[in-house]
Amino acid sequence: MDMGQEDPSLHGDQAGIGDGAKAVRGPGRRLHGAIAHKLGMAILSGHYAPGDVLSGEVAFAEELDVSRSAYREAIQVLTAKGLVESRPKAGTRVLPRHRWNLLDPDVLGWAFAGEPDIQFVRDLFELRAIVEPAAARLAAQRRDREDLRIMKDALAAMRRHTLATDAGRAADRDFHNAILHATRNDALMVLAASIGAAVNWTTQYKQRARALPRNPIPDHVRVYDAIAAGDAAGAAEAMGVLVELALEDTASAMGG
Amino acid sequence: MDMGQEDPSLHGDQAGIGDGAKAVRGPGRRLHGAIAHKLGMAILSGHYAPGDVLSGEVAFAEELDVSRSAYREAIQVLTAKGLVESRPKAGTRVLPRHRWNLLDPDVLGWAFAGEPDIQFVRDLFELRAIVEPAAARLAAQRRDREDLRIMKDALAAMRRHTLATDAGRAADRDFHNAILHATRNDALMVLAASIGAAVNWTTQYKQRARALPRNPIPDHVRVYDAIAAGDAAGAAEAMGVLVELALEDTASAMGG
DNA sequence: TTCCTGCAATATGTCGGAGTAATTGGAGAA
DNA sequence: TTCTCCAATTACTCCGACATATTGCAGGAA
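^ Those are the sequences you sent over. The predicted structure of the assembly is below.
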């Protein structure tokens, strides 16, 4: 998924997408992947609107200074994610938004790479507020001893490092992932992991905007205790509180 | 799982992925799309297991009787959906299941193309049972007059045609889509639409397995009435009943 | 022996050009 | 005006060559 680590140098957002393509290409990232990344961000950021055509294969590939092969492979990636559609004689057009695979990890990453759309962030939090408490409920019913051990360890790590550090945020992810794993539901795991990764990206904003407004540990402990006790309703409610808090913090940090 | 190396001499109707590629290619479907479709189904059906390598670009492309370009574009599609990963010198390997974008519409389609995995179907229904009632709750709070009109029309069409006909099923989809649209949440819309499309695919089994075990219209009406009345809790509960019923029908039809 | 360094083999990645197929839009006829 | 057909444009496919990166082995040092 690779949520980004975008190259700050490409923020020169002139009229043309052209040139600078190779500058985006990080180590280990293939050329067509870089092109897809660039075009995906350009579409998600609104630089290209639905209905716009990406002027001809040859012209565009030449403008980006890459071969048609690399350009076409990038387009296949975008097509696979429902962002564009190519037809002979018509060119490749940006599809209407409702065709986009908004829950695709890469698409989410592109959406949050630039200035994320406020409404979309709210939608995601709303979905999270639906899914995560339900996940906690299932986890409370299905967790085993091993699940609880992992959660406990993650909680301890969170206490040690706090959410201000990378290690602390990693522990936070581990905790939530352990809950998802305890649901024994692959679809739920994939969904929550995608949303969580994208939304946690906004946590960086939150941390940057102001000091931690509240100690999140007690809320996490409450979730853990409910899951450990097998209290389904309690786990769902405690997790609901957690998501609600995250929403408030993010909203205030983004000026909502 | 050893599908990788095949003796090129046996060109009969072996279980190999090779040949027949062009036969799959329907009108309007591009060659690389057909390849991706074929390989995607082969992976989702377990023909290739996670960790298996798709033996060399050149060899595989030749086996499929397509050019390397077409094969590579297909691989990019699968890569974009998290099914495989290609590295120089190492080949393209099937990724572990937790990396797959299970909620991608195409991936869902491939998963349900053959014999869908029972556990996965249950996971999806569980997720549906979480998401759809929540969607109905939001719809009850946010619907406008236009939304209600569309739902009403769809309901009338369902009554006329019944779920045994294509027109009836289309009306059913319209009804549920109208509810999703009324939530004003794009992420929720995309998610529920994907799951619904995949799960409704199993409806075909259901219809084939036995006659409609129960008239679904009254349950739909109950959902509509609650949404129209702005009764959030009632809408969620009524929708929960609807999903539960669909689960029971599908489970019994699949030999659960 | 064990570990590290460097070289070479191999498969993926990228390139550019040639040829095919399909859709579109207009010319021409009814 | 409407329909049919043709031709131009564009994406699609194929091919052969080169670039690049990773792997694994060979050889030397500790």
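The interface with chain A takes residues 32, 36, 69, 72-74, 76-77, 79-82, 97-98, 100-106, 120, 123-124, 126-127, 130-131, 134, 138, 185-191, 194-195 of chain B (CB under 8 Å). Residues 30-32, 66-70, 87-90 of chain B lie near DNA strand D (CB under 10 Å from a C1').

Shout if you want it in another format.
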